[in-house]
Each structure stands twice: as C-alpha cells, then as structure tokens.
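Continuing the series of single-chain predictions for the mutant panel. This is the parent chain; the variants come on the following pages.
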Amino acid sequence: MSAWIESNLNPWVAAVWLDALLKSFVVLAFAGGLCLAWRRAAAATRHWIWFLGIAGLLLLPLLPFVLPTPSRPLWTVSSGHVSGNEIALSLQIGPAKPASTIDEPLPAKPAPVSSALPNARQLFNAHVSRNWVTVGFGAWALGALMVLMYPMLGRIQLARMAKKADALTTPEWIALLAEASGMLGLRRCVVLLQSRDSVMPLTWGWLRPKVLMPAEAEQWPIERRRIVLLHELAHVKRCDCLTQSITRVVCALYWFNPLA
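Parent structure:
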C-alpha cells in the first residue's frame, strides 16, 4: 500500500492541486464579475452569488471524474513519473484534440508538445521531486488547519457565552419573538438569550438557532427591541450561519487562492 501511495499519490495530488487552483480562479473571478455588473441588485442576491461560487469550489476536484472530457478543453493538466524520485507536471492551453486526463503518466522523456498535441501551447512543464510535492501537501494541510482555527475558537467562545447567558422568557420578549417570527414567516424554534455583559447582539446555530441580547437590552424601547430581533431573525431565516460555515471550510481548503 505504501509503495502505491509513493508511486501514485504525489503525481495525482500535484495535478489535481494545479487544476483546482486554475478552476477556482475562473469560478471566483466570474462570481466577482457578475456581482460587479449586478451591483445594483439586492444584497441578498449578491450574497447568494458569492456563496454559490464559493460552495462550487468543493466540486472542482471531482469534475474530471464525473463530467465527460470536453473535446476542446481550455487547458489540460497531466502528471506522471519520470524516473527515480521525480514526477513530471505539465500544463497545456487550448489543445486541438481530446487531451490526456489528470494523472495520466507522461513518458520518461516527454516528446515535444507540438507533436503530442498539435496547436496546443505549453505554459508549464517541469520535473518536481516527489519529496517537494509531499512538503507542499503538508504545507497546504497546515494552512487549512490554521485558517479553520479561527472559527473553531469562535465556536468555543460562543458556547461559553451561551452557558453563562440567561434565557429571556419574560412575556414581553416572548411576544416580540413571536411577532418578529410571524413578520418574517419564520417557523423555526429560536432560543432567546441575554448576556450578563455588554456585547453586540449575536445569532448562531443552524440546527438550534440562538439569539443573544446584551445586558442593556432590558432598557431598550420596544421599537428598538423589535428592530434588533427582526435583524437577527433574518439571519436565521436565510440560514446565514450554515452558509458562513460552509464558506469558511471552503476558504480554508483554498487558502492558497487570493480570491478565496
């Protein structure tokens, strides 16, 4: 098993990483251009455009195995063993005939691209040590873990705040919660909490949503309570906590892409 990993995993990882990086640039650039051209659209619409663009990055590594290879792909990434401890990684742009798939072995002495893929333009062709590919994979995993540390620590902090908070069960707050939920058409059960400290109103949890009010919320006039509740419950209705969690995971996986 270890021999198979050593001989196959490194070329496969290198090719998939490069291909996904290029595709992620295209997807996010398209989403950004669409939001820029549609900048007068509602904020919720632009939010969903960005979310669909980000969430779509999760499927990029699977596309070569699910979708048929186009007859004229924009680019082709291929990898394979050369000799010893080296792998070959090649990127061609605009082949005129069906190109080789990811992880298709290259010959020990690659033939000129012009003879293998007529009318193709080679942008990148290099021999890379498998040890460097392994180091690069480790750096990617470490970077993804570091990016995920921030939301993980935030979850721990939110759990502590919820543990110290008191439930808002007074008739006034219950009536306001029911009124705001009715105005938004929200049927989910929401837990209303009040912090003992002066904090910003917070909403989290997509399975069991919670809304946290600051300690001074008891002194707020009724209209301000209603407005704040409507704002926080709108996050619950749009499932913002779920979409942000997915976005954070995707951005952690694609941290090497500046657009992500």
